Amino acid sequence: MLTYDLNKRGSIPLYDYLYQCIKQDIIQGKLQAGERLPSKRTLARHLSVGVITVANAYAQLLTEGYVEAKEKKGYFVRSIGDYRVKKELPLPQLQEPEEKEFFVDFKANRISLQNFPIATWNRLMREMLSLQNEALLKTVPYNGLYELRKAIADYLATNRAMAVQPSQIIIGAGTEYLYGRMMQMFGRETTFAIEDPGYKRLGAISASFGNPWKYIPIDNSGMEVEALEASGAQIVHLSPANHFPTGIVMPIKRRLELFAWVNRKAGRYIIEDDYDSEFRYTGRFIPPLYAQDTRNKVIYMNTFSKSLVPSLRISYMVLPPQLLQRYEETMSFYSCTVSSFEQYTLASFIAKGYFERHVNRMKKYYREQRALILQALKQSPLSRISHIKERNAGTHFLLKVDTVLSEAEVKQAALAADMSIACFSDYSSQPADRSGCTLVINYAGIARDKLAQVMTRLAAIFPECN
Amino acid sequence: MLTYDLNKRGSIPLYDYLYQCIKQDIIQGKLQAGERLPSKRTLARHLSVGVITVANAYAQLLTEGYVEAKEKKGYFVRSIGDYRVKKELPLPQLQEPEEKEFFVDFKANRISLQNFPIATWNRLMREMLSLQNEALLKTVPYNGLYELRKAIADYLATNRAMAVQPSQIIIGAGTEYLYGRMMQMFGRETTFAIEDPGYKRLGAISASFGNPWKYIPIDNSGMEVEALEASGAQIVHLSPANHFPTGIVMPIKRRLELFAWVNRKAGRYIIEDDYDSEFRYTGRFIPPLYAQDTRNKVIYMNTFSKSLVPSLRISYMVLPPQLLQRYEETMSFYSCTVSSFEQYTLASFIAKGYFERHVNRMKKYYREQRALILQALKQSPLSRISHIKERNAGTHFLLKVDTVLSEAEVKQAALAADMSIACFSDYSSQPADRSGCTLVINYAGIARDKLAQVMTRLAAIFPECN
Fold this sequence. Notes:
The structure is a homodimer. In chain A, 39% of the residues lie in helices and 14% in strands. Chain A is α/β, with parallel strands linked by helices. In chain A, helix 4 (118-131) packs across helix 13 (340-351) and helix 6 packs across helix 7 (201-209). Chain A is elongated, with a radius of gyration of 31 Å. In chain A, 45% of the residues are buried. The interface between A and B is large, with 108 and 109 residues.
């Protein structure tokens, strides 16, 4: 008869402990295949527990296939094969990588959360939770909530002169995610072109999706269209309003050349990544290619991670009408990747004008921040050996430094001084220029009271400043 | 001299209107390439506006490349090429698809939001917003917030007897998303195997990633391991705790056969999708393959969309230690797809025990719901011609109906009676059985006061019940 010391069970339920004991006996061969278990009543009496306890233990053993029930005959141990319990490859103790906090991180594009209207956001979220109770039960459509797509379409009409209908918009968790969907929709025979220098990560994404891709050089007007034509690419990704990292605005002449390219052959499209277009410090917005295009060949992408708060992962793209059916047929089986809580909250945040106000406030904040860092730079010895390449936009600038140090040496020296910094060549397929180096200075998140100190420390790594 | 009626500008800024007027003149050829614009001062006097207004308009034209500035000579119109303004392909008026509301939707796996602890969630979110102010500035690591990974690891240890370290966990926006990362990490030469019947969508995802994939038949114990071996697949996706849609629990014997398969050749792995394992109405949890595996060959996946609320898009996977480096090297350039707001909130929701309480509450709710629908079924004439295939788990059951109608005819008749329903063959690669039909009844979201009515209406579509 099965005999177990049920007092050893600790805090786990009686039936659970009994199930585990019998299971162990089966695994270790103490109970052999074909053997009959005692009847529930007999075992219950033997162990001084209720019949229900034994019944529950047997039921669990039955569910997991350790025993079988034969009608009117009782429970029998099943043949299970070779059960190894001991881990042959025990888990190694893994280290969580420690996050390094630098004195200053010129790479981090942190925006200031102090400027994020948390109270408003939270109030809208509470409103949403009480108003949208029924709606939150529903499955979000693959392309995102109508309310958010409508709010974005209206915003683009007012702020970008773009004629967009909500059903053209696809919501996704990041532009990378949406870029992936484009690669899959156009297929692995389609070659993508990306800017060089530019977002190298797009090359990695293309490679991971198995799409051929080409770097296309840029000149002072942005991507060189002749090189694009020669590349054989069908789809080109670019940021005409604010090229990264140079800040180049693509002039109208080059834009028209690009349209000539896209219209020359069927199946060509432009992906316009307008990610950083909100933050221009002078003048009006740069018209998107989407608005200038006459043949619906532009796929427009943008994100709220940059303009609102990086903690949110909400991006969108606007598809030309002739691609909508293709997208639905090939990609709509993917569920929408953004939580509907945040979609409803953002929809209301945009529709009620808070987003526009937030962007204006951030523009003002970044304009001040930019003025302060430029002033700190001017007052540092670094100003004697450097000049700024900047276009009054975005939250970074390029700083060309005349130094004997190579870019690799500058990065190393910066690290030694507890600063993290990227150089121009990090975003280029070409090796760094031998003569001097160009730094990429992201200034959005640098604490204002540290700006002078930051510039002093940065200057100190250059022998020319000492 | 340029002359425009500035009173026509409506509400747009003066400089903006002036810029648009001059731009139109350049586009339409009224101002020709090489032509010199009047000096700012001259034009300002002529139009009775400030010099700043003209300067801003000229600056915008300069930025967009319509004019160029020659030092000490002024602004000149640039040659831009052929600018078409009129849309050659005007946007068609697109219809937003109307969302059909059925009398009852047996397909929709809606969970009851009335049971979601909105007040607690909202309080935790407020706490998070005030406590994590600094942390929210930071970029979320590619694998997700440490706090959430830690909370999940602890939960799995307590509730699934799984030894997991936080650094083994990857957070993503949905299991589909994580499944895609697995396809990319293992590469396009790797064949994936999926259950038949099962989640057909995984086939579509595999195809869109270009990975070969095979359907593997199941028997009463779940996936047939001989067929799996014969398929040549390296990675198999399955739900051993609750196969969809049959609810089969894979017995220990089949599990050991599966381990024998995975250990037979290097490079083989099991993806265990435990998505529906929280909702068992009798006994304890089914041990995950992950916990039974002795050679770290199981990738464990689960989601909070099912167990918490579908509006959240948060899933995770647990990678075996030997895959971590490979994942980091090949996939860590992808940013985390889940908002850090929701990651912090969920982390705190789990760590403070609310998640466990919520699951228990939902288990009770679904158990009652299940009892009520089974009772309603018993009282309907449908009970005479049908029997239930169900395993005391999940939020759906199969209903085998002895009827002259084919599955296609049943679905059609249901639609005509304003009901949406899926049949077994919808999840299978095989055509529906000629004899009778098997319905998939998702009952989680059906209003309780409608249950009797629902069953009456469902019975009415079968001639055998009339």
